Amino acid sequence: MQGDESSDYPNWKGSTFDSPSKLHSMCSYMAMFPPAIPSYYIKKYTDEKDVVLDPFSGRGTTPLEACMQKRIGIGNDRNPLAYVLTFSKISTPTIGRIKSKLNKLRSSYEKAREGIDISSEEWKIRMLFDDETLRQLLFLKGKLGWEQQNVDAFITAMILGILHGNSDGYLSISMPNTFSMSPNYVQNYIKTHNLVKPQRNVFDLLEKKLVRCYDKPPVRGRAYRSDARSLSKIRSNSVRLLMTSPPYTRVIRYGAFNWIRLWFLGKNDKEVDKKLLCSQSLPIYKEFMTGVLEETRRVLRSDGTAVFVIGDVRDRESEEIENLADYVWKNCAQPLGFKLKEPIQADVIGDDTKVSKIWGETKKGRATKIDRILVLSK
């Protein structure tokens, strides 16, 4: 089978798609693909109780769709933000447990309020939130064990979803996007637009958020924080479908563009980016993806399928566009013995779903409007 790309209308767009779970709206995430894509391939290539894995799970779209379709969804991501979003969706507690924990936290806050000192927080955080809002956030930041407890993870994910944005449903000053530019850029934006920090009650907004986003999948999944090239917690020959969108060559710095949310998680954005692939070098990308595909071969069943959504990228100097999906097929997958299960499909996507502009700036990143879907078998 040849690696020729198909110009046909992407088949998943013409498929029947059930109403997506409200959990998908928990929190925005950069470079996320729509739930319809994993939903289509899960239905096409798996049966109930099969294992579906996303080694770069992002906000958990693939494992959540798998759990909603009664498959065992497994999400993995080294980014702590991605981990907590995935964990919260595939290990969702009952709504009664969430409400009970929120009530206890609200009561505990009232007793602890006077002892919470916000003066030691960095200026870049204090410029975003009203003093009382910041006190509540600091209290919750210290109380929520999001890494292990599913109730705490769910509440944390809701907080991350309302932490900053451009309406009265968010906690911060009014911002035109739900991802963050550099602190200096934000500071200048605040001064330019004469923004005033709004008085927002975190607990009240969380109760409203819970109504908007709560759902409970019929099957519970699993979430991990491993390197995608070494998924030691996943058994060999156990995965029926691997469905993912791996990082592109330095299109997005997930840490830097989420420094506010990572602050709430107690993580440093620069340290997060050090652990994630961020390189303009195709040889480095080739080595990375070869490692990912070697591990894919190990965990994938003999009748399994691997689906990679990979966007084209534009070289900053030459402006030439690189078809990364075709590059991965020819330089990484084919040499390892993978077979091309379907022709590579091109998917043209709009500006509202592709991260090409940030806060109205005219400078574009290296992402393009073309995503390609690479479908492989062992």
Task: Name some characteristics of this structure.
single chain; 378 residues; alpha/beta; Rossmann fold; 2 domains; 15% strand
- What's the SSE pattern? EHEHEHHHHHHHEEHHHEEHEEE
Number of helices: 13
CATH arch. level architecture of the largest domain: 3-Layer(aba) Sandwich
What are the low-pLDDT stretches, counting only 5+ consecutive residues below 50? Answer: 1-9, 351-365
Helix content: 25-40%
Percentage of β-strand residues: 5-15%
CATH topology of the largest domain: Rossmann fold
What is the domain total for the residues?
Answer: 2
- Outline the biggest β-sheet: 10 strands, mixed
> What is the C-level CATH assignment of the largest domain?
Alpha Beta
Judged by helices, strands and strand pairing, the structural class is: alpha/beta
Can you give the mean pLDDT?
A: 88
Shape: globular
Task: Please give the alpha-carbon distance between the first and last residues.
Answer: 13 Å
Secondary structure layout plus pairing:
Elements: E1 5-6, H1 36-45, E2 51-54, H2 61-68, E3 72-76, H3 80-90, H4 95-112, H5 123-126, H6 131-143, H7 150-162, H8 183-192, H9 202-213, E4 222-224, E5 239-244, H10 259-264, H11 269-275, H12 282-299, E6 300-314, E7 321-322, H13 324-333, E8 339-340, E9 344-348, E10 367-377
Parallel strand pairs: 1-9, 2-3, 2-5, 3-4, 5-6
Antiparallel strand pairs: 6-7, 6-10, 8-10, 9-10
Helix pairs in contact: 3-7, 4-7, 4-9, 7-9, 12-13
Structure description:
- The chain has 378 residues and is an alpha/beta fold.
- The protein has 2 domains: 5-92 and 217-253 and 270-377, Vaccinia Virus protein VP39 (Rossmann fold, 3-Layer(aba) Sandwich); 109-213, no CATH class.
- It is built from 13 helices and 10 strands.
- The protein has helices at residues 36-45, 61-68, 80-90, 95-112, 123-126, 131-143, 150-162, 183-192, 202-213, 259-264, 269-275, 282-299, 324-333, and strands at residues 5-6, 51-54, 72-76, 222-224, 239-244, 300-314, 321-322, 339-340, 344-348, 367-377.
- Strands 1, 2, 3, 4, 5, 6, 7, 8, 9 and 10 form a 10-stranded mixed β-sheet that branches.
- Strand 2, helix 2 (61-68) and strand 3 form a beta-alpha-beta unit.
- The model is unreliable at 1-9 and 351-365 (pLDDT under 50).
